Amino acid sequence: MQEPFKAILVSRDEDKKQSVAVADLTLAELMEGDVVVEVEATTVNYKDGLAITGKGPVIRRWPMIPGIDAAGTVVSSEGDAFKAGDKVLLNGFGVGETHLGAYARYARLKSDWLIARPDGMSAMETMAVGTAGYTAMLSLMALERHGITPDSGPILVTGANGGVGTVAISLLSKRGYSVVASTGRLGEADFLKSLGASEVIDRAELSEPGKPLGKERWAGAIDAVGSHTLANALAMTQYGGAVAACGLAQGMDLPSSVAPFILRGVSLLGIDSVMAPKPLRIEAWKRLSAELERDKLESLTTTIGFDGIIDAAHAILEGKIRGRVVVDMMR
Ligand code: NDP
After folding, report:
1. What is the DSSP string of 112-167?
2. Are residues 220 and 245 in the same domain?
3. What's the pLDDT score for residue 224?
4. Residue ID of nearest Cα to ligand 1 atom 43
5. CA nearest 270: which of 250, 251, 252, 244?
6. What is the pLDDT of residue 1?
7. Which domain holds residue 165?
8. Is the pTM of this model over 0.85?
9. Ligand 1: does its nearest atom lie under 6 Å from the Cβ of 280?
10. CATH code at position 67
11. Does residue 291 fall inside a structural domain?
């Protein structure tokens, strides 16, 4: 292990003013845990953007190393679950929020939070997927548990050019679903079609206050946007359909009515990746490894180094990132 090592550290002064810096840390400064992992790859999710910019109350322990996702190799372990040399993966569990996170060469973590890296995926590929892509899979699995199949009808994907959106489109189209992609970046329509969208619509169709019920346009939806967009997605879901709600890019509010639920039997399915139980995580990653086409994953991924993390955090909140960002920590 090489000490000191570089980490991104977010601090807060007495006036609660937040600042971000690259710091040299030692292992002794990391928090408690039974496994030390050398982080080989990480990523920049929307939540990491909120943490680094301070635009959302993600960080709840100061100072904090952000970074909610990590892939790497175990360098030391006190328990039996993992041993030195094991290839592991972490998504969520408060890492980068309440526990020092992935934007450092080393992370000390709890073994309960880790899963073995799925067969057939490199550290970089798992982080190209990251929490955003794993959440897209959790959303697809929720729709399927509801009984939705490709024969049920099209599936709406909102925030289509984002991390959740691009992976959701790729996964749905591979399973044979017809996908309606909603985006504010219509110039990227050809890209979204290359991922498998059959139709691309302007997000302005969904982002303004709408009627309690509209024309039935889709059998289900994966919504990364919230607010009026989620309300309109529900209002236009066909009888018996379901909407998997996983994000808040437009807003945390839900200005809806009960009409879709009581008049059309529509279901709203909540998706949480952070505390999702281990069997569900393992199943989601197994399916991502088997079903996500690697050429599509590559086409929706931009690779950066440790030095690019802070800029990417700002860019993701400005809606400037297309697809996913993977961070090569070995660069
Ligand atoms: P991205 O920033 O990559 O994607 C979000 C997309 O939403 C943007 O690319 C844009 O798509 C669209 N968008 C942005 N701002 C607005 C707006 N004001 N109105 C309408 N659409 C907008 O983020 P991620 O894909 O990583 O995450 C998406 C959401 O999901 C976030 O809110 C994140 O916090 C949440 N999330 C939740 C998880 C959970 O466990 N429930 C896990 C992972 C993410 P376009 O340009 O195509 O319009």
Report:
1. GGEEEPPTT--HHHHHHHHHHHHHHHHHHHHHHHTT--GGG--EEESSTTSHHHHH
2. yes
3. 98
4. 132
5. 244
6. 83
7. 131-270
8. yes
9. no
10. 3.90.180.10
11. no
